[in-house]
Amino acid sequence: MADVLSQSEIDALLFALNSGEVTAEDMRREDQSGRVKTYDFKRAMRFSKEHIRTISRIYEQCSRLLTTYFSAQLRTAVQLSVASVDQLPYEEFIRSIPSFTVLHLFDVRPMDGKFLMVVPPNTVYPMLDRLLGGYGELLRVDRHLTEIEMSVLERLFSRSVSAFTASWKSVADLQFAYDSLEVNPQFISVVNQSDVVLVVSLSLSIGNITGIVSICMPHVVLEPLLGRLSTRFTLASPHAHDQQMDERQVQILTQQIDKVQVWLKVMLGQTKIPIDDLLHLSPGDVIPLEQPVSSGLSVLIGEEEKYLGHPGTHRGRYAIKITDVVEDGVAVE
User: Fold this and answer.
1) CATH code for 43-258?
2) Which backbone phi and psi does 155 adopt, to 5 degrees?
3) What are the Cα distances from residue 63, in Å, to 59, 82, 91, 136, 255?
């Protein structure tokens, strides 16, 4: 029976009751039989809807932190967001993973167990290409990773564990530590095949390349925390927590920007000479520059003038002493 009846259906139902064609007891039995649902004990539901909502909020925060981290590391636009949260047997999850993929294991302390992150090859190779100086192109995905590439990926993802630690702070003081990298799912067994796991799917985009990153969390690891995955343990001030997360993101981004190397060059001066004079230059010739000796030299970052300074030496090497800062084309002491 539909949840909302039309007026004609209501009239027909009242007529059937009044005429005796249908009794109230018959309707009650029909309603109860309609509530019976098939239950598969092999796919026992261990997480409630409230648990799943809380986990989804945790990984929404984690996605924002990972977006900031990977964007800084890969020097390109990276976006992660929660696509879905599902619970299923571990055996079914492992079967859904391709035979060749990249799997990262994380220790979850003080819990007794590990989380598993699955990254598809079509996003791994653009990451490697960016880290090794390329443009993030999708290369061949039908080959195995070299030892150097595996080391680069381990270093990249081992530094991402801080995002997981920060995201779980609202529920429990968990410390995540990078464990290892594998490329064959058959070599990994974090729980028994029949155990239930919670799988968070994150949509990942790197430029125009997209993929799904899966995070597998065994029920046996999360079971001691189920009581905390409820509204009773949400923060009293969600706005304050969001502000904390924003400040942490800014701090992480600032730390990464501080490590970026830029080209700095000093202009000794410039002038124009006829091409004939240029072709006939010889050792000992002097080229007058349009730069007074008393004025400061331009210090450029990229192609933009940022400072003024005076040349000199420091410990036997040529050096420049910064004397003024240039803002909007004007020197500011």
Assistant:
1) 3.40.1550.10
2) -65, -40
3) 6, 7, 26, 21, 19
Looking at the chain, the domain(s) classified CATH 2.30.330.10 span 264-332
Q: The tokens of 36 are what?
A: 């019976």
Question: Rounded CA gap, 312 and 48, in Å?
Answer: 71
* Burial class for 217, CB neighbours closer than 10 Å (0-12, 13-18, 19+): buried
Ranges in the chain annotated CATH 3.40.1550.10: 43-258
Confidence category of residue 2, pLDDT binned at 50, 70, 90: very low
264-267 and 78-89 as β-strands: parallel, antiparallel, unpaired? unpaired
Are 56 and 82 in contact by the 8 Å Cβ rule? The answer is yes
Helices (H), the chain: 7-19, 24-34, 49-74, 90-96, 121-131, 147-158, 161-167, 219-222, 238-258, 275-279
Residues 274-285, mean pLDDT to the nearest whole number: 89
CATH classification for the domain delimited by 264-332, as one of 2.30.30.180, 1.10.357.10, 2.30.330.10, 3.40.30.10? 2.30.330.10
Characterise 44 by phi-psi region: left (phi > 0), alpha (psi -120 to 50), beta (else).
Answer: beta
Segment 22-35, tens digit of pLDDT: 666 666 665 555 55
| Reported pTM | 0.59
